Amino acid sequence: MHKTTRKYFPIFVLPTLLAFLVAFLAPFVIGIYLSFCKFTTIIDAEFVGIENYTKMFKQPDFLNALGFTTAFAIVSIITVNVFAFMLAIGLTKGIKGTNIFRTTFFMPNLIGGIVLGYIWQLIINGVLMNWGATIVSNYKYGFWGLVVLMNWQMIGYMMVIYVAGIQNVSPDLIEAAEIDGATRFQILRKITIPMVMPSFTICLFLTLTNSFKLFDQNLALTAGAPGKQTQMLALDIYNTFYGRMGWEGVGQAKAVVFFLIVGVIAFIQLYATRSKEVEN
């Protein structure tokens, strides 16, 4: 680092550091403390130890939300990335109107979650009405409705990242493989996918975190119905914190556990995919 730059480095870093401390670190530390308290406001917190965590794990709604969210995340991560990668492969073949297709597929990502939820609720209910049902008649309808919504919203976004990765694959490398007699599948498996591993790392991380954090779409599409069977973790935390007097500490404990779950899974995923990048 240049001496002049080093001299003024603290001045440039200070605003960002203060913002990080005030807007993230301080609330996070306070939130952890409050998860061990019974409170209605920060100034009247009463320390109760692990009571909130005990209540949380005894609550069937939380365990159901955890299982439902995990199943939803697994299905969504696989489907979103498979379809996005297939689209990216197709849209890097020099097809006419490629830019129009890319824009069209990306546009759903720009629509807000609440709006998307209500739009897909109308669409799905319109289809299910032919069989005398609605999306909240059975939790399976809600589950697959959320999966379809997630795919429709995220595939275009992930596709753009995959397209950028595929375009960085050297054409000379592919041409050399074709001359050696490699099939399209062999080129895809041995050259394209290994070279696009950084894009896979990013897309898997984004779909993983977005799947676990899904809230707006869940609220608008099913609101957890029927009987909270389609309630995901974020919505369960919200309903606990704001919907039940005296359970604010339990809601805060759920939020801390939720953060740890997403953080640990995201870290494992990043470590695993980056290890693959190094191998390749």
TrEMBL record:
Ranges where the ABC transmembrane type-1 domain occurs: 66-269
Top-rank lineage group of the source organism: Bacteria
InterPro entries per the UniProt record, alphabetical: ABC_transporter_permease, MetI-like, MetI-like_sf
Sequence intervals crossing the membrane: 12-36, 65-91, 103-123, 143-166, 187-208, 255-272
Membrane topology, from the record: Multi-pass membrane protein
Gene3D superfamilies linked to this entry: MetI-like
Pfam families according to UniProt: BPD_transp_1
Major location (coarse): membrane
Compartmental location: Cell membrane
PANTHER family tied to this protein: ABC TRANSPORTER PERMEASE PROTEIN, INNER MEMBRANE ABC TRANSPORTER PERMEASE PROTEIN YCJO
Family: Belongs to the binding-protein-dependent transport system permease family.
Protein name, entry field: Sugar ABC transporter permease
